[in-house]
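User: I'm curious whether this sequence folds into something compact or stays loose and floppy. Could you predict its structure so I can see for myself?
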Amino acid sequence: MSQIKLQPPRGTRDLVGEEFRRHHRVIKTARRISALYGFEEWATPIFEDTRVFARGLGETSDVVSKEMYEFKDRGGESVTLRPENTAGVCRALVSNGLTQSLPRKVFYAGPMFRYERPQAGRYRQFHQIGAEVLGAGEPLADAEVIACGYHIIRELGLDEGVILEVNTLGDAESRDAYRAALVAHFTAHRDRLSEDSQRRLEKNPLRIIDSKEPQDRALVADAPTIEPFLTEGARAHWDALRRHLTTFAVPFRENPRIVRGLDYYSHTAFEFVTERLGAQGTVMGGGRYDGLVEEMGGPPTPSVGWAAGVERLAMLMEKAGLTPAAPRLVTVIPVSEAEEGVALSVLQSLRGAGIGAEMGYRGNLKRRMERANKQGARVALIIGETEATQGVAQLRDLDAGTQEQVPFAALAERLRK
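Assistant: Here's the prediction. I'll summarize afterward.
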């Protein structure tokens, strides 16, 4: 009987070696920087009641209509693997009775799921980091959440070649006037629109602006922008955002074609984009969503946030040659089986002192040394019969090729140097 060779499901992958180290660096850096801005980390369930996403993303969105992993559980309830996490965070705010203690700054990291065609940097199980400011309507909140995202990108060493693009969606009155102008423009050219955009013209005309179809792009280029339709209040919010971004030293350019299709999005929309990943150019995106918490059963709660694809940021790190090095451990080597007990005590004392150390499970001195070099160990601690008796180890620097004798009690302090 031939042995079955199992592989990860299509659109998923294992994270090992260098890939995992890049992935881990993105999340670790985002956790550290977001904490500097006062964000606390939340973890919500990987699957939710389907209504969380149907309400949060809109029944007509591509994610809800085409890409969600939705299924009935054994109790007959409709549940969905989360395709994004903003809706889950807003649901958690309401479920945990936190709408009376606002604003809240929330950071999250974890896997998301979408059934779509796998391609470079896009998977059916992918990972996101995100930051949300819940309960603050001021443009300063928009600017601060963007500055946090920029700080993370900069700290990863990816700011060169990644550009922040911003736009305003205005307030409800601004959008109503803008939507009417878009409907008039696209209706005049309806027969030239793609099939998807013809449907959007009836239900969600702003989403035509975001179409990737070539026939739509030509029409979008001549479509009106929202700027002439902004109310006085919407214009003040837009002006303040740009002023705050300048104060935060966050470089940006305006892009009037960044839109969000759902009615509860307002004012700020933004994306960090790059040309280094081909067609998959957005690495972080977000905006203001002043009605989403209300969709989850909470009170009106102005909010703003972003999400970033960990895989895409990791791909940028790889292209920039920024893969973190594997940790270099200390290898403890007993010369013979007789010294193994002493070597194990030394090994565990180093770990207790916060020094990464390991000891091979088998092999003579020569083979253990070969393995230490192959694995990139920085130091080998050799313990033979004499060393075990005297309570010392031969410390061999595997980079410099030097060797010295160090008492067991002084090993941790010596290795920290």
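Summary: The mean pLDDT is 91. Residues 164 and 272 are 4 Å apart (CA to CA).
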